Known about the structure:
Elements: E1 7-14, H1 24-29, H2 32-43, H3 48-53, E2 56-63, H4 65-73
Antiparallel strand pairs: 1-2
Amino acid sequence: MPQHSSYVVRIDVFADPSIPTLEGKDVEAADFDREMQKLIDEMRGLTADDLQDQVHRRFEYRICRPCQFQFMANPLGRPRESRVGGN
């Protein structure tokens, strides 16, 4: 597909960057060493790709004009459901 006659679709999938609400008593009660060790133990069985997928992954596709129309109408490509009063 010629580069200047295509559309670029980029999809970024990443962990929610918002920080949970913490109160002073939560911080005081937390055992950070234990939690860190627990995370390390969980990560031991994962590959580098598995670990990266839990943080961020970017996909990039080049699509033609007809595919661009189709993508814009239904970005996830999921079957459309018909519901009474819901459409």
